[in-house]
Amino acid sequence: MSKPLDTFNARRTLEVGGKTYHYMSLPEAEKNGLAGISRLPFSLKVLLENLLRFEDGRTVTADDIRAVASWLETRSSDREIAYRPARVLMQDFTGVPAVVDLAAMRDATASLGGDPRRINPQVPVDLVIDHSVMVDYFASEGAFKKNVDLEYERNGERYVFLRWGQEAFDNFRVVPPGTGICHQVNLEYLAQTIWTRDVREDGQAITYAYPDTLVGTDSHTTMVNGLSVLGWGVGGIEAEAAMLGQPISMLIPEVIGFRLDGRLPEGTTATDLVLTVTQMLRKKGVVGKFVEFFGPGLSNLSLEDQATIGNMAPEYGATCGFFPIDNDTINYLRSTGRDADRVALVEAYAKAQGMWRANDTPDPYFTDTLELDLSTVVPSLAGPKRPQDRVALSDAAPAFVKAVGDIRGPDAGSLKAVPVSGANYEIGDGHVVIAAITSCTNTSNPSVLIGAGLLARKAHEKGLTVKPWVKTSLAPGSQVVTDYLEKSGLQDHLDAMGFNLVGYGCTTCIGNSGPLPEPISEAINDNDLVACAVLSGNRNFEGRVNPDVRANYLASPPLVVAYAIAGTLTRDITREPLGKDKEGNDVYLRDIWPSAAEIAAIMRQVIGEDLFRTRYGDVFKGDEHWRGIKVEGGLTYKWSDSSTYVQNPPYFEGMTETPEPITDVHDARVLALLLDSITTDHISPAGSIKRDSPAGDYLISHQVRPVDFNSYGSRRGNHQVMMRGTFANIRIRNQMLQGIEGGYTVHYPSGERMPIYDAAMKYQAENVPLVIFAGREYGTGSSRDWAAKGTRLLGVRAVVAQSFERIHRSNLVGMGVLPLVFQEGTSWQSLGMKGDEMVTIEGLAEVKPRQILDARIVFGDGRAETVPLTVRIDTLDELDYYRNGGILHYVLRNLVKEAA
């Protein structure tokens, strides 16, 4: 951390517990030129402090800082700022490629004559292995152990690599498998609300204090917003940039204030609240904006309730869902076993900075607001396909019947049921075949977990059972959940209802639900049934949870148990009985629903800081499986040519200490002509690997059976698999091939149709550069790193579009690919392009940000046209990345240069 310029004379010291902390004081900055900033939203105060602390006159200027203050006048801004989060959080699917890149940088450093030990994360990085466990075994005492054994068998290569990284890199920690979901581990242990860093300045050792901020390689990083930690999910390249000390470019956001009043009524849960909030904010439209919660209702929500709301920010479309620091923050930090000195610092710092919320705190100024009276929230589900499609529990049954027609088509007919082979029951439309207490959203909240346990206890005591066609599972977000469920005796009753522990991690929500029993799967698919899943998660998109399930409903954990007992969505469980007790009497949901007082009483009895201190006391050590992994390699990784999961990427092959001048693009061929709104899902490999695909051919050639293909996500550390899957989406439409879906193109001059990967390799063999042409909003969607990495590895030198999604544009630059934009009114369609053209772009060695360059396009019929294009390299930092061939090359050369 370099010493800031401090244009606004903001630097001060704070004494807490006998220790001195240096910090950038917002009240002092307000006195010295930033008038009115005390009324900024709390989330923008965090951004402002970040700019003050990193003011260097280049990446952060005084005008950038003034722009945050002037936001108060317009409540929006088109100014781009450089934001540097304090740390990075990764999960294993998205974290493996980042560690692969670090390992490759060490190899490249050694080849340049540098010291590989220089290559380490420049900010703290925590990687939590939580996305690999699947629910193969369930509803049995041994399910957890069997699932863990399978997890290690399937992911052994990846775990060997991460185990090496855990020992090889400084500033990098790995939370082993079986510990919990990254977001819950972050909330319960990693996050500190106020971060500190020891540095040397002017020869003296000092400690800085500043807000805990982060970016994560998972969209639900926002759960920690409930602990007043500003963080959100990003793509891998952005995370790598932050990890290597580079700023993240972002617009000063609009901030939507969400006022909460009143208190939740008896019988409702935090899940019901968050589904209501999600529906409201989706309707409002908050994509790309910050949401900040305020109002007296905050005092009636637990911090875990706030974290539940923050978690769902991706579902309501916001960048984050932020809650300010208040007494609940302090109580939560204390009750989860955080260090007493840190807790004292959080309170003192927040009060000194004007970041403390009390009941008499004036409301901040917002871009716009909306409000909710908590007393109006009702028990709810969301489905069958989107998190924002909330339906009141009392309306769920008729809503499902209507949905069947939408899912199966206008000729759906009436609901149907068929016998299950080898069983004494039928399965039909609306039957719940998966009931899963899963996902970070709810398993971080003890009120709904205890509620589910109490409902299971009451149901068990009355003799109710789960229907035989329901696959039940409990995948808590941390081991603390198991501790308090066992301590309360509730786990025994959950076990009796089939909700045995299956693993700690992200399971059903990401499609790791495992297969359904074969007779049930056959009955569903052979008869076109609309089967259902009820899960306590955050994602229920079509085809995501399980390929056999076409209607997925988000619900609170107690309702998950209730629907497992009911066995169907066609029953109105608010009015009809769930089943019969031991004496044959009807049992209704109201008979077994736990009261808020019952839940609170058990929480007081079984949850204390001792649980958290014990579980997180040695959190990085892992179980015997993890400790037993043999680590190969030392400073550099011992790559295995036979591995199909982890390979040394070719980014640094032939790299020199100083970058060669960028060569112009001469006679490039067109790899694809694409229309508007091409998403990163279209570009980046995702989902299952098809047998008859370039990636499938590669795996088979390496003796991998199709049944063991696993997914693109699990193989993100192998560029050979991922580049073969780039632009291979089955729904992408390359307009060079009219009426054909899938990742195909036409090779010229041969005119041969082939997969995009095969064409790209043929062009590389012919030493022919490539360009891609697209329409508006190119690269929308999740900021997938492989959308840019794959583009680079296919040999694409430039992407020409009518407009770019901001993050994908930045990612392309970060991989050394040039983004170019047509002038308004021009497109590849208006030029009459067919895909048989050759393209020349000159002047790249001296290119400047936002410069206009001419592209010469020679058409298939021999005519030529010169087309002006805007270079979408927007900043001097991005120009440095591009000139170096990418951000990784830029950082690597600087580290080698500093050590010389």
UniProtKB/TrEMBL annotation:
GO biological process terms held by the UniProt record: tricarboxylic acid cycle
Q: Which Pfam families match?
A: Aconitase (PF00330), Aconitase_C (PF00694)
Task: Kindly provide the name given to this protein in its UniProt entry.
Answer: Aconitate hydratase
Question: Quick one: which pathway?
Answer: Organic acid metabolism; propanoate degradation; Carbohydrate metabolism; tricarboxylic acid cycle; isocitrate from oxaloacetate: step 2/2
Say if the entry is tagged with keyword 4Fe-4S. Answer: yes
Q: Where is the Aconitase A/isopropylmalate dehydratase small subunit swivel domain?
A: 698-824
Write down the species: Propylenella binzhouense
User: What keywords is this UniProt entry annotated with?
Assistant: 4Fe-4S, Iron, Iron-sulfur, Lyase, Metal-binding, RNA-binding, Tricarboxylic acid cycle
Task: List the EC numbers from the record.
Answer: 4.2.1.3
Its annotated function is as follows: Catalyzes the isomerization of citrate to isocitrate via cis-aconitate.
Query: What reaction does this catalyse?
Result: (2S,3R)-3-hydroxybutane-1,2,3-tricarboxylate = 2-methyl-cis-aconitate + H2O; citrate = D-threo-isocitrate
Q: State its cofactor.
A: [4Fe-4S] cluster
Domain Aconitase/3-isopropylmalate dehydratase large subunit alpha/beta/alpha residue range list: 77-567
Q: How does it assemble?
A: Monomer.
Q: What family does this chain come from, according to its entry? A: Belongs to the aconitase/IPM isomerase family.
Listed GO molecular functions?
Answer: 2-methylisocitrate dehydratase activity; 4 iron, 4 sulfur cluster binding; aconitate hydratase activity; metal ion binding; RNA binding
On whether 4Fe-4S is a keyword of this UniProt record, the answer is yes
